[in-house]
Amino acid sequence: xxxxxxxxxxxPDFKPTPVGDFNVAxxxxxxxxxxxxxxxxxxLFVLYEMASVLTMHCFDAATGDVGPALSALPSxxxxxQRPPAGAFHAAAEVAVHRSGRIFxxxxxxxxxxxxxxxxxxxxxxxxxxxxGALTAIQDVAVLPNPRHFTFDKEQRWLIITANGGFTSHRxxxxxxxGTATESKLGGAIATMGIDCVVLVEKV
Length: 203
Known about the structure:
Methylamine Dehydrogenase, Chain H; five-stranded antiparallel sheet
């Protein structure tokens, strides 16, 4: 069973409700941002941006009905003994790897809306264990502002956007994230946040 952690300022509630002084004051709410289907289309994973929570739902392809949340977990690692002072977190992207693992990215942001070093993550989950719940199985600290990520065609590489460039991580067949290779872009975009990356085949 998932047990909620205690600090509402830095730790998202497992229910998609407004959390944190910043989010509540801004009337932002949980803001469901992106969703991804399991390979068989029977499960839908929904990522809430301001709540920084990933939820899992059953999906009925015959009716289009999305069921209630069967399981929910934070989209980033959190140590209640060392809360990230001066930072709040905002989830960004979710995708499902061919191994069945679910991946979510989360950005660490501080005033005045600047990225906080060491507070951006990609978290890997599995689903369908003995209790059918989501389980967080790997946390990887990444460069600031992982707004988007994608896999290559064979899903052997994970490409994550960052300010002014990307990181590329080798993926194992069972979906484990490997070490990063950093690629920085020069010129005027060297310090810009990149919104999206798409890989295309060379023709």
